[in-house]
Each structure stands twice: as C-alpha cells, then as structure tokens.
Specification:
Elements lengths: L13 H4 L3 H16 L2 H10 L4 H11 L2 H12 L4 H12 L1 H13 L6 H4 L5 H8 L4 H33 L10 H10 L6 H17 L7 H6 L2 H30 L1
Helix pairs in contact: 2-10, 3-4, 3-5, 3-10, 4-10, 5-6, 7-9, 9-10, 12-14
Length: about 260
C-alpha cells in the first residue's frame, strides 16, 4: 500500500491526482454493504451464546468492531469467564488505536469532531481511507464507509438476534459456526505477505492446540503471542543473514 505522508491541499495540486467523488463513494458503499451484512451472523451468534437482545444490540452500537465482538460472544458461548472474554476482545480491538494515529494525520479533522469519528476507526474504514490519493477523497471514503457500515451492521445485528430468538436452538441449525466463518472470511484477504500468513498460522496452532487444556477465552489471549514471536524470529533471521554477509565481506577482504 502506498505510503501517504502529506496529502495535497492547495488549490490546483489536488486536480492532478484527484479521484472522482462518485468513484470514492461507490468503493466505500461496496465495502460498507458487503461487510455490514455480516452483522446478521453476529446477531445470531450473540443470541445463541445467551446474550439478550438488548445486550447484543448494545455491543454493536458501542463496541462496533466485528472481530472483538465475535471473540467476546464466542468465548462466552464456550463457557468462558466474562472477564477473560472481555480481555480477549479488548486486545483484538487495540489495533484500532494504531489505525487512529495514522488516520488522524490523513483526515485532519477539527478537534470537536474527532471523538465522534473515532467510533468509526475500524479495519474497513481505514482500508478505504488509505487507498485514496487526496484528503478530500480520504474524508469522503472514511465517512461513507463508516456511516454505511455502522447503520447496516447495527440493523442486521438486530435482525440476526431476532431471527435467532425465532428459530430457537442455534446449535441445531449449525449457526454457532457463523461467527468463526465470517471472521475468517474477513481476515483472509488481509494476509498479503509471508509474515502475516506466518502470524495467522501460528495463532491458529496456538489457539487450537491450547483449546483442550486452557479455560475458554484464554487460548485467544495466548494466540496473540504469535505476532511478537514471528517478528522476533524474523529479526533473528535477518540479523543472522546480515552477520553472515559482513563475515563474508571481511573474509573476502582478507584474501586480497
């Protein structure tokens, strides 16, 4: 993804690299509509895990980050401690704080607006915003994606929770697998390089391997160690290669 450190603001400079507003809106709507429909799966999963309709809707309204929501209700459905489940959801949501650091530079919003915009700082709005060439396009992409996704996610969450109550036992319909399936569908396209795939694979191994021996909700916390472990191994490998190159160069100089 192209690094953007400063977006053109001066009159005349944006025209050279501007993207039509209609194209930005179309892309943003596409992402918002596609992901927003997943709220139905969350509503079903949450209701099936024992949360009430009000609790389910409150999670989507206030938390509004799908991965954390699915992690929370999944741990609760497995009989996990609420505090452990909340901790796992929290650690998954921490990434949004780092998104916010980058988006604050690109959006350059007034201080009064920032607390409200922070609610929409999630994977999808960040991806759409970072793909835009100008600050105007960034703001349009972020706003349209955030608004579309927030409204649709909460609406489909309500419909999913109501539907789960109507059909009764969600396990009998196999709907308990809806949450993990949606989570994997959202995650897979984000794994674009070897390091990211290695982190995901190690996290899966840790989570599944520890599932039989640790309380529900704890394996997902341990799986979070996959990222630092892979980065540490990558750093060691890079350091070893660099040392080898230095030694090879030194030996070559010595033979001359």
């Amino acid at each position: 993804m192209t690094e953007q450190t400063a977006l053109p603001d001066a009159p005349g400079t944006e025209d050279a690299c501007a993207k039509p507003d209609a194209a930005v809106v179309r892309d943003a709507l596409g992402v918002g509509l596609a992901v927003g429909l997943s709220g139905f799966a969350f509503g079903v999963t949450s209701a099936g895990s024992g949360l009430t309709l009000a609790q389910t809707c409150a999670l989507s309204l206030l938390v509004f980050t799908g991965a954390s929501q699915f992690a929370l209700v999944g741990a609760l459905a497995a009989g996990g401690n609420p505090l452990t489940a909340a901790a796992g959801a929290f650690f998954l949501g921490v990434r949004n704080a780092f998104y916010g650091l980058r988006l604050s530079q690109l959006l350059a919003l007034p201080r009064a607006v920032r607390p409200f915009a922070a609610q929409w700082v999630i994977d999808e709005t960040t991806a759409v915003a970072l793909a835009q060439p100008t600050r105007r396009a960034v703001r349009i992409g972020f706003t349209v994606t955030g608004l579309t996704l927030y409204v649709l996610w909460n609406l489909t969450t309500l419909l999913g929770a109501l539907g789960a109550e109507a059909i009764g036992d969600t396990d009998a319909w196999g709907l308990d697998a809806a949450g993990p399936a949606v989570f994997l569908a959202l995650l897979a396209p984000m794994l674009k390089n070897t390091t990211e795939r290695a982190v995901a694979a190690l996290a899966v191994l840790l989570g599944l391997g520890l599932l039989p021996v640790l309380p529900a909700g704890v394996p997902v916390l341990v799986a979070a160690l996959a990222a630092p472990l892979v980065l540490w191994a990558r750093g060691r490998r890079a350091g070893g290669a660099e040392d080898g190159a230095v030694r090879g160069a030194a030996e070559g100089e010595g033979e001359r």
